[in-house]
Write a structure and sequence with these properties.
Layout lengths: L1 H29 L26 H12 L3 H18 L2 H18 L3 H15 L4 H19 L1 H4 L18 H14 L4 H4 L18 E2 L2 E2 L4 H14 L23 H5 L11 H13 L11 H21 L5 H15 L6 H12 L1
Antiparallel strand pairs: 1-2
Helix pairs in contact: 2-3, 3-4, 4-5, 5-6, 6-8, 6-10, 10-12, 12-13, 13-14, 14-15
Length: about 350
Amino acid sequence: MLPNRFSLLLLCGLLLLVFILLSCKWLGKKDKPAVSIKNNPNQTMPIPTLPITGDYADEWKIVDSLEQQGLFKSALEKVESIQKRASGDKNSQQTVKCLIFIGKYTAQMEEDGLAKAIQTFEKEAAGARQPERSLMQSLLGQLYATYLQNNSWQLRSRTPIPDGEGGDILTWSAAQIEKQALELYSTSLKEEALLSTVPLSEFKDVLQPTQHDSVMGQPLWSNLFELLAQRAITHFSNERSYLSEPAYAFVLNQPEAFTDWETFKNTAFETKDTDSGKWRAIQLFQRLYKLIKINPNGDQTVAKARLFDLELKRLNFVFTNSVLENQNDLYRSALEKLKIQSENHPSNPEIVFYLADHVF
């Protein structure tokens, strides 16, 4: 009798264990935490921590709480509900913010998630109005560049698809992806006249200010074109080497690249190699210089801060990429002139630092 009771208890225990396991499995499907960023580095969206404050702050706090708990599926669903509200309210910056987070969670939770996030961005950007479309194109350029960087070892073995035969990021070669990134950054800047009228305050919910973004409490760069141009220059300055270099490749061999900004902005840097990131960066520097207006009858502090900031970036860029034998002397001479021009200006210590760093 005792063995039978023991067998019955054992059987009941086994049935209870099976029920618990099945229950856990079923519950896990409801909101299983996604793979963490650390464990899935090739699927990470390259976005900073965006502010929770601003429009729909209470709802974004919920999203943040769900993310902190690793409940990415629930966080995604909440973002999608915010997206519907933002669309109804015609709130463009919140629409872009939602798209960024949808891409982020898609990249974390799904196989080939970053590629799928890029495809979602492509679809949304194609139907977006300005100025949101230009911002999305700039973000897309960054996503393509990130995908290329994270997956370069796999992409090197791909056979390129001939141009015009379709395909997407899952089938393109490294060179095709790099070219797409270049084109997206350039396309984002085409409507300069419109973008120059859009203050950055209109997109404060999707921008992360840094300590170098202002001078004396005023923004260093104040409109969307200037921001997108800075982003493009950063990409062009870090040009990858996946594109085949033509026989007529652009070479930075003109000493005018180191001259004062008035001379530089009017110098022609001609080339047939219009795919060159270096050449595109030079063109953008010239466009930005032409937007700087220094009023001799007013406060010149902010305008000169913008000028000095651009000068340092430009001189560092041409020094890094020049092939001139006397580039060291040209760079030092340019910095010394800039140091004199910036005396009694808040930008002077930074210029002195660049000069000291070069000399020593």
